[in-house]
Amino acid sequence: MKRFATAALAALLLLTAACTAGPDDGDDDGQTPAPEPSQAPGGRWQPRPGTAWQWQLTEKLDTSVKVLVYDVDGFNTTKEQVAGLRAAGRRTICYISTGAWEDFRSDADAFPKPLLGEGNGWEGERWLDIRQTAALEPLMAKRFDMCREKGFDAVEPDNMDGYKNQTGFPLTADHQLTYNRLIARLAHDRGMAVGLKNDLDQIPQLVGDFDFAVNEQCAQYEECDSLTPFIKAGKAVFHVEYERSTSEFCDRSRELKLSSMEKKYGLGPWRKPC
């Protein structure tokens, strides 16, 4: 699993509002403004390829970054902060873990112990038995209700590729497809867009179910071409690298029309976009 666990940090660091920038769809370094968002069937938001974004899950929320999209922690970001971003012309994505249990979340006790599998490598987190959709659906529905009630435009569900990891459960690709489609439906039923997080091997089957993609380190692992079905479908790919400098991946990102930036593993406010 190629992602940084912001779990312990996010639990300790409450996001609070900083100075709010005025509406501006461009990037903060003088780049060409990002495209205007489009609408998917049914009226929900669907970001287009090349849309500039910020991904911040820890530290004091910096709302001064001049990009259209903010991807922030669903639990720690307040309704007032989301409203402030909306008033400034931003779109907001609600980060929620849907494939792993986190012991520091306010609803942790609601998860029955039989759903909890092996640790996923990050403190306080354990894989979920995604085969148990009857038990998981109401739990995830409540989380998505929270995102909707706070005013988010979309959801970024994390840990969406358990079947490729040592979870403690005999998960298959079919189990993952079923669960990921359930997650997409829960978001769409609430009028929110939803992104496919990593899970590159199942993009051909899932590109029609998701409104955008979120990827970590496709350049480092030479996998970025796998994301092109989203671009061809007119859907944004929000991409970060942690161990490669922008000089190493931005040229290719521009060719592929990825929304790419360099971030530090802590996923604080610092960013270096392409």
From TrEMBL:
Region described as Disordered: spans on this chain: 23-50
SUPFAM superfamilies in the record: (Trans)glycosidases (SSF51445)
Species per Swiss-Prot/TrEMBL record: Streptomyces polychromogenes
Name of the protein this chain belongs to: Endo alpha-1,4 polygalactosaminidase
Entry keywords, A to Z: Signal
UniProt cross-references to InterPro entries, sorted A to Z: Aldolase_TIM, GH, GH114_TIM-barrel
Signal peptide bounds: 1-21
Residues of the Glycoside-hydrolase family GH114 TIM-barrel domain: 53-267
Superkingdom of the source species: Bacteria
Residue spans crossing the bilayer: none
